[in-house]
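We store sequence, tokenised fold; for instance:
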Amino acid sequence: MAEIIEVLRDHVPAYPIVLSGSFEELPGALKPLGLEKRKVCIVTDSRVAGLCLRRVQELFEKEAEKTAVFVFPEGERQKNLDTVRDLYEFLIKEGFDRNDFLAALGGGVTGDLTGFAAATYLRGISFIQIPTTLLSQVDSSIGGKTGVDLDSYKNMVGAFYMPKLVYMNLSVLKTLSEEQFASGMGEVIKHGCIRDAAYYEWIRKNREEIRSREVPALLPLVKGSCLVKKAVVEEDPTEKGVRAILNFGHTLGHAIEKEMNFILSHGACVAAGSVAAARISCSRGLISEEELSRLEELFDFFGLPTRLRGLPVSRILDAVRHDKKMDSGVIRFILLKEMGSAFIDKTVTAKEMKQTLEYLAG
């Protein structure tokens, strides 16, 4: 049986997040959307297309009047306006109108790109998220953040645009590489750090079962992260305040990702950035050395970096100054009051960042 979480939004209907162990309950989840007289375009990348596109397409064909497929080459480098333009042209040629749907089948790149196209095609058409990586299931598919990269600037062009449905098949997580699964764990552990100490401790206690990737262990893992993000998003849908705590580890993490030419996964960079933010929190006396050490051990257990040799410290500091999280020239940094509780801080200095980056560089 599927588990359903509802994300509530002000002034508009809630959208469900469906957690299941297969794709077989997808038709039932689609029924309330009324696709009988609608066209659906499944957007996916070349890798995911070879894994599960056929089955998902068959299920959509049972519900929708017409199902089309748009496949683009896999990889972060495809998350740009050129790919969005190609998708626009495909939708125009296929006769898609404002009453039709897009369905994002894949990881964060696919979800972000499809969501942005949905937000902007004909001033907005409906879309569905079907995330297939741990990272996209626990993070990017929830909360309505969409966007694409502009040159080397990550997610610089985007919009807040909510899906009509998020459907998660947890069994597809078994197809992920160790690196891909670890990348998702970077965001999972982050959620425990910022909002739910009990969930963080549950992850620590059940780390072996989680790493085995059996659905009985994955369900509470993904559900716990979804509930954290749901709570934060409902409190602040467009990131005017508290939602910024979801950027724990991202201020330096995004800069590390960019300045190391995207050779590391997003989750790996978030883990490194989280260690940096936790270390600044520790140096200010907010968390203990023991708590910092335990966090580093947990990241290490899941194959996530707590040190990065050859880190280009000066370039990373310069990149932070151009980050979209800047607020009137001041860097918004997310620190920990304690494990399970984060806050927005605007007093982190360049010296503090330099010291913690030098620590990461070993």
Remarks:
- The longest strand covers residues 12-20.
- The mean pLDDT is 92.
